[in-house]
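Example 3.2
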Amino acid sequence: MQNENDGRNDFDFLMGTWKLHHRTLKGRLQEATEWQEFEGEMVHRHILGGIGNIDENVIQGQDGAILAVALRLFNPKSKEWSIYWSTDRMGTLDVPVIGGFQDGVGEFYSQEVFEGRHIYTRFIWSKITQHSAQWEQAFSEDGGKTWETNWIMELERIS
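Structure, written as tokens:
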């Protein structure tokens, strides 16, 4: 039996269509301080009877449009979300970040390899309202002692 408060509805705020503003560091894990900015759009919907959801994104990158997808799956036993990412330039799913929401903020973590280096990745969902939200990605090379935020996405609801 489904428990409405077990976490499976945590991403319901994303349902609909969004305008996106992205800021990314020009170099990740290179002590970069210069950011590049670009726009995008995202459509979010439920899948698998609500146990999952998917975002379809068009990101207006400097080298042309990038098509991307975020796939989220909720595990009713662990009460955690796994978030997978892919683009039309990758053709594979990234290692999932796993976690959940507490007090209106979502934190999700993974261990992966970035440019030959073993790192931790963190996603944070915050500043969530009916009409806006913020997502950010950070990397850590020191086991999570310090984090470099390298991608910030601000969302504004279209519909």
